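Record 1 of the preview.
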Amino acid sequence: MTGDKPPLAMTMGDPAGIGPEIALEAWRARVAGAPPFFVLASPELLFATAKLASLDTPIIETEPGHAAAVFDKGLPVVPLEHRVEADPGRPDTRNAAATIESIARAVQAVRDGAARALVTNPIAKAVLYDAGFRFPGHTEYLGELAKAWGEAAFPVMMIWSETLAVVPITIHIPLSEAPKALSAELIAKTARVVYRDLRARFGLARPRLAVAGLNPHAGEGGAMGSEETTIIAPAIETLRAEGIDVTGPLPADTMFHAAARARYDVALTMYHDQGLIPVKTLAFDEGVNVTLGLPFVRTSPDHGTAFDIAGKGIANPSSLISALKLADRLTR
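->
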């Protein structure tokens, strides 16, 4: 345990995915000095998951304020009000309300001081959409919940690892829509959040930002597209005028090898896969999804629900453990 600091609040994720299983595994894999955490979930679900996956994990029903005291004895679970009836590998819209409740109550626990950071397990967006969820994903919903702090949050998704950190400027939209969504204002606004949080939370005195181009060869001087000269370069000039250390636009096909990565702290890419393919290739098991621009720390494993292996006892908890460690580090 870490002194008198509050524990971390972990969400259940989609109950039919691997979230419950890796939560159990994360407690089993704890070491001396590991940050205590509690899970907002159905205790019955975790009991059933532990039995199905042959995991010997004691489960203790508790409240957020008592979680740290019992963490050494078992996994603290704060029960949800909504019922959960999950069959591993079979997502069900009837569990959407419980999934959303887990997120909202975990954020509230952080706001109340009962937890010091939020660690979220993967959700299935399509399941939530079918139940009327109106946000593109976790990141946007957390931005809405952050309004309770009285702040105008601008959430930014960063996938972080010791090997590479990336921030996609456009995220969960069709690839065909990404060029239309780009603007110099959006790039600059995102970069300012990244720069601020890398200084305030990651302790980098002068973060180095590298900005990718949109087109092959970063447009090849306009021969392969104009976005680099009309949108991306003006945003970079604005940021430089504000004293931010930023380079680009860089060809995306040459900015992720080892020598190139040594020249920056984070890569800003123009669309989702342009950044997430490199980071998931280089650090799939260790990557952590970090939401910047919020009044609280939120981390998450850098993978999905993995319905195909849920309940089989083979899910790898490494990314969730990395998310717990990073949340601890950012709130020390």
